Amino acid sequence: MKRRGIRLTDNQARFILWLVVSLSVALALETVYLFYLKFEKFTAKVRVVEVPPIVLEVPKEERALEAPHESKSIRLFEFNYEKMILRSLEYLESDATVSIYTLDSMGVEKALGACESPYFLTEISTDLYSLLLTRDCTPISKIPQRVVYGIYMLAVDSEGFARAKMLDLREMGLPAFVVHFSKDDKEYYSTVIGAFPSPGVARSYLKRLDWDAILEKTGLRERGYVGCVINCGR
């Protein structure tokens, strides 16, 4: 038997042709749109929007309650003259290399905190001190003196006896130390009160001392006298 072919009418043929063309056009448009989207993705510009910071306004009434800021200086240690006398040097050579400065209490604190040097401290007037150091102290903006004056109490050949009298004077709250020196090939030890930058300052200090109490405490018979103690040959 022969197969019979499918015959389309003119209207059916036109419809199929129109449908094919419509689908082709739709597919072409979709392809173009996809390419457009990809192009927009690569060429899109990023826009940065700055947001201003949030400022919290504090009412004036609350600001008035705020405590004012006060700058406080940091004290390196509590300044206690009596305790510092006990921590001062007990023994010095007559030819020792020393530096002596005149400072107030705050200056003494700064110097001892910065220089880390053995020291001997003498109060020469209200809030004014003579500070002896065994080395130069760079932070102090003063020229140091090298010659030291003091109040001689005794000169003996026994270091132990001189030290005992020094301790008696320190028990009274007086700045005392022992100085070792040589004379005529013999060794001597002097008990001295104070380390001063000049003989005038030493004499003024001597006049304020309670000599009756000092002589009773030490058992000595005569008052002390002012003289050069360290670096006297300079």
Q: How many beta-strand runs?
A: 8
State the shape: rod-shaped
Uncertain regions: pLDDT < 50 for 5+ in a row? 44-51, 61-76
The overall pLDDT, averaged over residues, is 82
| Strand ordering within the main sheet | 1-6-7-5-8
Residues in helix, %: 25-40%
- The whole-angstrom Rg is 49 Å
Helix-strand string: HHHEEHEEEHEEHHE
Secondary-structure-derived class:
alpha+beta
What's the CATH H-level homologous superfamily of the domain at 81-230? Sporulation related repeat
CATH topology of the domain at 81-230: Alpha-Beta Plaits
Whole-Å distance between the termini? 150 Å
Task: Give an account of the 3D structure.
The chain has 234 residues and is α+β, with helices and mostly antiparallel strands. The protein has a domain at 81-230: Sporulation related repeat (Alpha-Beta Plaits), CATH 3.30.70.1070. 37% of the residues lie in helices and 24% in strands. The radius of gyration is 49 Å and the shape is rod-shaped. Residues 44-51 and 61-76 have low confidence and may be disordered.
How do the strands and helices of this protein lay out in sequence?
Blueprint: H1 10-43, H2 60-63, H3 81-87, E1 91-93, E2 99-103, H4 105-115, E3 119-125, E4 128-133, E5 148-156, H5 159-171, E6 176-183, E7 186-196, H6 199-207, H7 211-218, E8 225-230
Parallel strand pairs: 1-6
Antiparallel strand pairs: 2-4, 3-4, 5-7, 5-8, 6-7
